[in-house]
């Protein structure tokens, strides 16, 4: 197993509460088996600077720990991975890449798409969301028009600390598109107190937004539970939930109507599916979030999404669409604001060696 850090450009600069991003810096994990199969995984992490160091971790520690296992010893492989990783949430994204690579190789061996190893497709298509960069209401409407014209039916308004601008943007989108465009709002932890958040959320109620994402800090579960009880709008958590343990805490605290699930943050496709199963058992909704991923990570999110028992909320299974280029060729099918089930064996992506060589980060 080896990991290669790479950097690919985004189509345009994305402004969010996390800052301005113009490229993604991730790692590609290549797993080789004795009979010549290759499995691919992606280390996607939005926080810059960690992608490369996580590749070192895979090359020096995680890779050697999994040599010699049978490809179908998934549980033992992942136990060895977690035992070898240093403590810290960011290393979950390296574990996720191993999970993807193992499942990809298993699918190729069996001639089956990864979703068929997870129960098969539970849906015919997944409704997508595209995120609008933080901008003036007029610029947001113009960007939303571009998405609507290319078929998308739901956009996500990324909010900063300026609540008046967030409300004005949602109002402008509502006036322009009405029910022809679904609108989600992602506050990305922009509010300090639950009362501050409630003031903004109440102003959004009349526009019928589909969900209000992460208004408060990740650990303010009491505040999130308060909000959930004081607004009709669904409260979604994102930063509050990385892995299944976080999901359990959120569910026990009554802190969310919807959990936004990431393959990378969960530690892989299988732990992400566990979150979806936990949510369904507790009548909590789920969506899939995005870093945004490039080809391998987007495919992993797609296989996860189709295998989920109930993915009713529009999801960000479209990371590749934000990127101007990629290190792999993927045959994901996007049409009319939806993504359709992948049919090729494994994750259904193949390395483009020339692009990988061009985009690899050399240190
Ligand atoms: Mg979010």
Description:
This protein has helices at 50-66, 74-84, 92-110, 137-149, 163-177, 194-204, 221-230, 244-253, 263-266, 269-281, 295-307, 353-359, and strands at residues 2-16, 19-32, 38-43, 126-127, 130-132, 154-158, 182-186, 212-213, 235-237, 258-261, 285-288, 328-330, 333-335, 338-340, 349-351. The chain is of the alpha/beta class and 363 residues long. The chain folds into 2 domains: 2-111 and 354-359, 2-Layer Sandwich (Enolase-like, domain 1); 116-351, TIM Barrel (Alpha-Beta Barrel), CATH 3.20.20.120. It has a 7-stranded parallel sheet with strand order 5-6-7-8-9-10-11. Strand 5, helix 4 and strand 6 form a beta-alpha-beta unit. The protein is globular and about 60 Å long. Magnesium ion binds at residues 186, 188, 213-214, 238, 260, 289.
Structure described in brief:
The protein has 363 residues and is an alpha/beta fold.
Helical element count?
A: 12
Name of the CATH superfamily of the largest domain: Enolase-like C-terminal domain
The CATH top-level class label of the largest domain: Alpha Beta
Instruction: Compute the number of structural domains.
Output: 2
Order of helices and strands: EEEHHHEEHEHEHEHEHEHHEHEEEEH
CATH architecture of the largest domain: Alpha-Beta Barrel
Helix content: 25-40%
> Which ligands occur here?
magnesium ion
Beta-strand content:
15-25%
Secondary structure category: alpha/beta
Quote the CATH topology of the largest domain.
TIM Barrel
Provide the spatial order of strands within the biggest beta sheet: 5-6-7-8-9-10-11
Low-confidence stretches: none
Radius of gyration: 20 Å
pLDDT averaged over residues? 95
- Count the E strands: 15
> What general outline do the C-alpha atoms trace?
globular
Largest sheet, described in full? 7 strands, parallel
The N- to C-terminal Cα distance equals 19 Å
């Amino acid at each position: 197993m080896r990991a290669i850090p790479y950097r690919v450009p985004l189509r345009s600069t994305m402004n969010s509460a996390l800052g301005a991003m113009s490229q993604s810096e991730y790692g590609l994990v290549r797993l080789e088996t004795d009979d010549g199969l290759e499995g691919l995984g992606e280390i996607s992490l939005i926080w810059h600077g960690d992608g490369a160091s996580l590749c070192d971790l895979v090359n020096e520690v995680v890779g050697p720990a999994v040599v010699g296992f049978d490809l179908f010893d998934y549980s033992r492989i992942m136990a060895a991975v977690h035992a070898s990783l240093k403590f810290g949430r960011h290393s979950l994204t390296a574990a996720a890449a191993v999970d993807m690579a193992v499942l990809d190789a298993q699918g190729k061996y069996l001639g089956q798409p990864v979703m068929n190893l997870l129960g098969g497709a539970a849906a015919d298509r997944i409704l997508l969301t595209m995120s609008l960069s933080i901008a003036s209401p007029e610029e947001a409407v113009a960007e939303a028009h571009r998405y609507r014209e290319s078929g998308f039916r739901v956009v996500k308004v990324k909010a900063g600390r300026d609540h008046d601008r967030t409300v004005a943007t949602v109002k402008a989108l509502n006036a322009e598109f009405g029910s022809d465009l679904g609108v989600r709002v992602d506050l990305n932890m922009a509010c300090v107190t639950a009362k501050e958040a409630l003031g903004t959320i109440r102003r959004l109620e009349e526009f019928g937004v589909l969900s209000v994402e992460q208004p408060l800090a990740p650990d303010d579960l009491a505040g999130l539970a308060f909000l959930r009880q004081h607004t009709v709008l669904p409260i979604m958590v994102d930063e509050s939930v990385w892995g299944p343990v976080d999901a359990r805490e959120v569910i026990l605290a009554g802190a969310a109507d919807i959990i936004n699930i990431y393959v990378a943050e969960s530690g892989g496709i299988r732990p992400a599916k566990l979150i979806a199963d936990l949510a369904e058992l507790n009548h909590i909704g789920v969506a899939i979030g995005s870093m945004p991923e490039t080809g391998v990570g987007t495919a992993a999110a797609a296989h996860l999404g189709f295998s989920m028992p109930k993915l009713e909320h529009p999801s960000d299974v479209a990371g590749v669409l934000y990127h101007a280029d990629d290190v792999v060729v993927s045959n994901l099918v996007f049409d009319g604001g939806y993504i359709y089930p992948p049919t090729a064996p494994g994750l259904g992506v193949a390395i483009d060696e020339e692009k990988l060589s061009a985009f690899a980060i050399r240190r």
